[in-house]
Give the backbone structure.
Amino acid sequence: MARKPTTAAKTTVTLLAWGIGLLIFFPILWTVLMSFHSEGDAIKSPWDMLTSVWSFESYAEVQTRSNYALHFFNSVVISVGSTLLALAIAIPAAWAMAFVPGRRTKDLLMWMLSTKMMPAVGVLIPMYLGFKNMGLLDSRLGLVAVMTLINLPIVVWMLYTYFKEIPGEILEAARMDGASLRSEIIYVLTPMALPGIASTLLLNVILAWNEAFWTLQLTTHDAAPLTQFIASYSSPEGLFYAKLSAASTMAIAPILILGWFSQKQLVRGLTFGAVK
Amino acid sequence: MGHITLKSVRKTFGEADVIPAIDLTIQDGEFAVFVGPSGCGKSTLLRLIAGLEDVTAGDIQIDGVNATDLPAAKRGLAMVFQSYALYPHMSVRKNIAFPLKMAGMSAAEQEAKVQAAAKVLNLTAYLDRKPGQLSGGQRQRVAIGRAIVREPKAFLFDEPLSNLDAALRVAMRQEIIELHQHLKTTMIYVTHDQVEAMTMADKIFVLNAGRIEQAGSPLELYNHPANIFVAGFIGSPKMNLITGAEAEKLGATTIGVRPEHLDIVEAGGWSGVVGLAEHLGSDTYLKITTDQVGTITLRAGGEVHLRHGDAVRLAPRAGKVHRFGADGKAMA
C-alpha cells in the first residue's frame, strides 16, 4: 500500500524546502540588495537595507568606470564559442564510443574524467608560458581554446551517457528499413539525441560563463569576460561593496535568466541515466 | 520471391564458436521457425540472414544471388524485433512510411500504402499517435506494418511475441499466421517457445549449440524425433525419457514415451503411485512414481478421478515408443 503523507508532514516538507531554497539563494539576494543602495547603506544588515533609500547610483558608477558591453560580449563569445567547438568534437567522439565501442573505450572515458580531478593551478605555469609564446594572452581565441579543452571531458561524458540510452535495435531497424548511414543519422539518431545535445549545450555554456580561474589568469582587458569585470571591483580602495555588487549582479543576471528559462532541460540533462 | 540458402555459414564471437557450420534452405513462401533453448544461436542465425551481423565464413544466398557481403539495407528483407524497435519520435504513420521514404517513394504513394497496411492491421484510428501512446499489441502491429509496406522478399521475426501477455500472444500468433496465408511471403520466425513453433511453422529447424538437430514439418518432428534432444524439446508436456532395464528390454539405451501415449490399465504394465494430479478440465496430468521406470508424466482425459496417493498401473501404447541408441540418435 502506498503511504499517504499527512497534511502536517506535507507542510513541514514544504517549509523545509523553502527554507533551504532561501538559504541557498540568500547570498545572491544580498548582493542584489547591496547593488541598489549607496556605498554607505550597503554595509548595513540586509534587514536595515530594505528600509533605506534605494538608488541606481552604483550601476551608473560601474557603467562610467568600465566597459560592461565589452566584457559581456567576451563572455558570450567565450562560453558559446567554446561550447559549440566542444560539441563539434564531442558528438562524433561520444557517438563512436557509444555505438562502436572498442576494448579500451571504458579506459579512455575514465582517463578523460581523471583530467578533471587534477587541480588546475598545477599546470598554470606551462599554460601561461605557452600562451605567452603563442601570443594568445588576453585573446578571445585563446580563451575559447582553453574553455573547450577543460570542458570537453564533461561534454563527452554527458553525450556518451545520453547516446547509450538510445537502443541499438532502433538503429538496426532503420538499417533493415533501407536507411543509409546518412539517413540513419539524420532521421533516427539526431532527433532522438537532440534533447541530450541541448541539455549538454546549456550546461556547458553555464560552466564556461562561470569559469573564473583561467579567465582571470589569462586575460587582462581586451578578452576579459564578466568574471574579470567583477574581480576588478574587488580592491582594497575604500568602500566598494555596492559597486562590486552592482557589477556582480550585472554579470550573473544573463546566465541566471538563461538558467531560469531552461531549467526543465537542465534538470533533465543533469539527471538522465539516473531514472529509466 | 524469397528463397534463402545458407552454405556452411559459420559465426564466431572472439573465441566462442556460436555457429560452427550450418547449411539450410528455406523455400519461397515457406513459414520457417528456428526454435531452441536460449543461447542456441537461433537469434544470431537470423541476424546473419538479416545482415546485422557479418558471417565469419560461408555464403548466404537470397533468390540465388550471393548476399553474404550485402549490407542489411540492400538485402530486401524486413525484420520485426522483440522490442518492436519503433522510432519513438515519429507518429505511427511516419513509422510505417519510413521504409517507403527511404526507398524514395512519393508522398501520395506512401500514404496509400500506409492506409492499406493500417486497414489490414486495424491501426487506422491510431495513425497520428506516437508509439509511446500505444499498447504492446498495437506497437507490435505497427512493427509488422512497417515490415509489410515495403513488400520484402522475406520477413524475419525475432521472438516478436515474448513481450506480450499470454492471451494477446495467442491472438497475435493467429494474426501472423493469417498474414502469412494472405501474403504468401517467406517468413523466418525465431522463438524459444515450442508451442509457437508447432502451431505456426511449415518447417521447424530445431537448434542446439549452433547446430541444427532436426528440420522438418511439425508433425514429422513430433512423430519421428531424430534424437533425444528433439524428442525432449518438441511436445508439451515433455516426452518421458526412460533409461535402464525397461529400455534394454527393447534393445535401446533410452526409450521415450509421450504423456499422451501412456494408458491406465487394469493389469500388467508398470505399477506406481500418483504423486501430483493436475485437473485442467479437458485433461488431467498425473505425475506417477513407478516401481520400474521412475517418475513419469501421464496425460489422461478430463474425467479421470485419480488423486494424490492412489495406486495405478500404466502401459505405453503399442507402436508409440521411441527408441534411442547410446549416441542419442533414434533407432529404426
User: Anything to note?
Assistant: Chain A touches chain B through 17 residues (CB under 8 Å).
